[in-house]
Design a protein that fits this description.
Elements (H helix, E strand, L loop, with lengths): L6 H7 L42 H12 L8 E3 H22 L5 H14 L1 H7 L5 H8 L4 H11 L18 E7 L7 E7 L8 H4 L3 H20 L5 H18 L3 H4 L8 E3 L2 H5 L5 H7 L7 E4 L2 H13 L2 H15 L6 H16 L7 H12 L1 H12 L2 H24 L5 H13 L1 E5 L17 H19 L19 E3 L4 E5 L14 H17 L21 H19 L15 H21 L5 H14 L2 E3 L1 H10 L5 H5 L6 H7 L19
Parallel strand pairs: 3-5, 6-8
Antiparallel strand pairs: 1-9, 2-3, 4-5, 7-8
Helix pairs in contact: 3-4, 4-17, 6-15, 7-13, 7-15, 9-10, 9-16, 10-14, 10-15, 17-18, 19-20, 19-22, 19-24, 22-24, 22-25, 25-28
């Protein structure tokens, strides 16, 4: 996962990423999530009166929910977050040991120097805003709209993956993604996406309602505060104009649902097309500054937004755009500026936007920044110490078992035509599965890290990452390239590569424990493995063939059946309403919900094949392991934000996926009248 690590993205990535979820190195500051005990027949003591068929999430996790508080520096807390805390305690110790080791290699030394520079608050305070001055001077020097186009092009960053990133927001005017072409598996192409917002989504600018109106007021105040800290005069008046510009940008943006529709993103533009299809921006100057002049073919993910934003470049005064550029650059660099900047960024993005009461301690932020700058260099340190070869071998076997189980499910589908089935089987046959860490590591030889220059390191790391992405435009796609570093507690399906990544950090308790029963492991990590495999066949992944080419490989009848079954799942999740005024969006979360359902079913089949003698007790362990893996608590602001912007449903409803599997009813004697009960004909069955 590559990210610009702006305050916006940090707030989101913190929820998933081992790069920024560490506990205190010297002591465990955050409460530890109990390891799934895969309790069989016994209900949690505090939930004795609650039946599994009424609320399976609460039944399985009641004791944990009652005993666990969200740490003050977090907007949510759960099994993944707790594991990331533990993982990062290890990573920080490795970095500290490297700093003290005079014989450490050059790359490891860069990691420790980057971390150390970020931690050196005294040096950052002493420099004040001096490092920012030349950056703002370049913006101040803008006089013409051609100058503005150059500045906008120079600011673009390749930090958004629209197929896997739950947050499409980028503070730069446009986002750039480099990946193989939708119809050209042998060529990498530049994808251009909408951007330009300092809040997570257009809804924050346009939706009516008291809460959103309040956030808009606080955001405008945040813009003014940042400009004032940087010494800009008339900060409030400038902030009002910057905010008004972002409202115009948001109005041009595609909705979250449209962003997730890859068919609407299939827009090939030549470089010459931009002048006629998106007038208002000097595209030649823009592309030259963005180092994209040698690219003739682009894929424009959000064509209406690109057109609308280009028109705003021509319509809005250059002075307003200069203030917009200045604010976003200050905002992006807040973490490596004096404490007042970081505190102000947290006041809005942490407290106001996510409901987090306390800012993370400095070293946690330093670790997040180091991971963002040198993700695989940190990962190399981690796996050398903490990922045994035996773990990789065992997980590879589990993956093979679940892939085989999914293949058998495909073979048994009575609604699928032979032609479609053959294509589906080919996808499974050619699937690349990366376990633990990449086969080839990135090189950081070209990145200059200075031991006492946090601001300069951040600027150079940003430029270095962008250079890596630009270089990829001149290479053929690599199916084995990883999108996640090994220390990330997460997993991913890459539709264009027809590939999966299972980083080392998630392959440990509570998700995988070599000492635990097969039932618990298959219910936890097995369901995650099945989930990622299933993404190749969800509403989005099913649009890509075995080579990652976007094309129709379904018969018309098969596609109609698949879509009808999918809509039943949409309706099921639309019925979940965590707040009186806000329901889960079944369409927005469809891909993840389909993957949960199919992945759990395939993991169950693989478990039964691996342990043919397992009875109901094993089945209860399997489903309890699944529910335990979704242990999570979130602050209201964070949960509301997720419902509006995240392609994943809240964890309590993902745990309820079990209601669609017949075996769950048998294992827990779920009867009509219980809240999760579905009649057999109402249970959603897709794969």
């Amino acid at each position: 996962m590559t990210t610009s690590w702006t305050p916006i993205k940090t707030a989101i990535v913190l929820a998933l990423c081992g790069a920024a979820l560490a506990g205190t190195p010297a002591s465990a500051a955050a409460p530890a999530a109990p390891r799934p005990d895969a309790r069989a027949a016994a209900q949690p003591d505090a939930q004795a009166a609650l039946r599994p068929g009424d609320d399976f999430f609460a039944w399985a996790n009641g004791d944990w929910l009652a005993q666990t508080e969200i740490p003050a520096d977090r907007s949510s807390w759960g099994a993944m977050a707790n594991l990331a805390e533990q993982t990062n305690q290890r990573i920080v110790k490795l970095i500290e040991d490297t700093a003290a080791d005079k014989g450490a290699g050059a790359e490891a030394r860069k990691v420790s120097d980057y971390f150390g520079a970020y931690m050196n608050e005294a040096a950052i305070e002493a420099r004040g805003t001096a490092p920012l001055a030349p950056v703002l001077a370049q913006i101040d020097a803008i006089q013409t709209r051609t100058d503005l186009a150059r500045a906008l092009g120079a600011s673009i960053r390749a930090d958004v993956d629209p197929l896997n990133n739950t947050d499409f927001a980028t503070e730069n005017l446009f986002g750039l993604w480099v990946a193989q072409g939708l119809h050209e598996p042998d060529k990498n192409r530049p994808y251009l996406l909408q951007g330009g917002l300092g809040m997570p989504d257009r809804a924050y600018y346009l939706d009516a309602g008291e809460r959103m109106a309040g956030l808009r007021t606080q955001y405008q105040q945040h813009i003014a505060a940042m400009l004032k800290l940087a010494g800009r005069a008339d900060a409030e008046a400038r902030a009002a104009k910057v905010f008004a510009l972002e409202v115009d940008i948001a109005t041009a943006h595609a909705s979250r649902a449209d962003s997730a529709d890859v068919r609407k993103a299939d827009n090939a533009w030549t470089r010459k097309d931009f002048a006629s299809k998106a007038p208002g921006l000097d595209w030649n100057a823009f592309f030259k500054a963005a180092r994209l002049s040698d690219q003739n073919k682009f894929i424009v993910w959000h064509p209406a937004a690109v057109t609308g934003e280009a028109a705003l470049v021509d319509k809005i005064d250059v002075a307003v755009w200069k203030d917009w550029l200045a604010f976003h650059r200050i905002n992006q660099m807040a973490g490596v500026l004096p404490k007042a900047f970081a505190d102000q960024a947290f006041a809005f993005y942490g407290k106001a936007l996510s409901g987090t009461p306390q800012q993370s301690v400095r070293w946690k932020r330093a670790l997040g920044a180091t991971n963002a700058a040198m993700d695989e260099a940190v990962g190399k340190l981690y796996v050398a110490k903490y990922f045994p070869a035996d773990n990789k071998k065992q997980l590879q076997q589990m993956v093979a078992n679940i892939v085989a189980a999914f293949g058998k499910r495909i073979d048994k589908l009575d609604w699928m035509a032979p032609a479609t089935r053959a294509q589906a089987r080919q996808k499974l046959k050619t699937l690349y599965v990366g376990v633990g860490y990449p086969d080839k590591w990135k090189s950081y030889g070209g990145l200059k890290v200075v031991a006492d220059d946090a601001f300069g390191n951040a600027m150079r790391a940003e430029a270095f990452r962008y250079g890596q992405q630009i270089a990829a435009l001149h290479r053929k796609p690599d199916r084995g390239a990883w999108a996640m570093p090994p220390q990330l507690v997460n997993a991913v399906n890459l539709p264009l590569q027809n590939a999966l990544n299972f980083p080392a950090a998630i392959l440990q308790p509570p998700f995988y424990d070599p000492k635990a029963p097969d039932a618990a492991n298959y219910g936890a990590i097995g369901a995650i493995i099945g989930h990622e495999i299933s993404h190749s066949f969800d509403d989005q992944g099913a649009q890509f063939d075995a080579q990652g080419r976007l094309r129709d490989w379904w018969t018309r009848e098969d596609l109609a059946h698949f879509q009808a079954a999918s809509q039943k799942l949409v309706a099921q999740f639309n019925g979940y309403k965590p707040f009186p005024d806000l329901a889960v969006n079944g369409q927005l979360t469809l891909s993840e919900n389909l993957a949960d359902l199919a992945g759990l079913a395939a993991a169950y089949d693989a478990y039964k094949a691996a342990d043919a003698g397992a009875g109901e007790e094993g089945d209860r362990q399997f489903f309890a392991g699944f529910a335990h893996s979704w242990r999570n608590k979130a602050r209201e602001a964070a949960e509301r934000r997720g419902i509006l912007t995240d392609g994943h449903a809240p964890p309590q409803y993902r745990a309820a996926t079990v209601r669609n599997l017949d075996a769950w009813y048998q294992a827990f004697d779920v009867q009509p009248g219980q809240k999760l009960y579905l009649a057999p004909e109402e249970r959603v069955r897709v794969w």
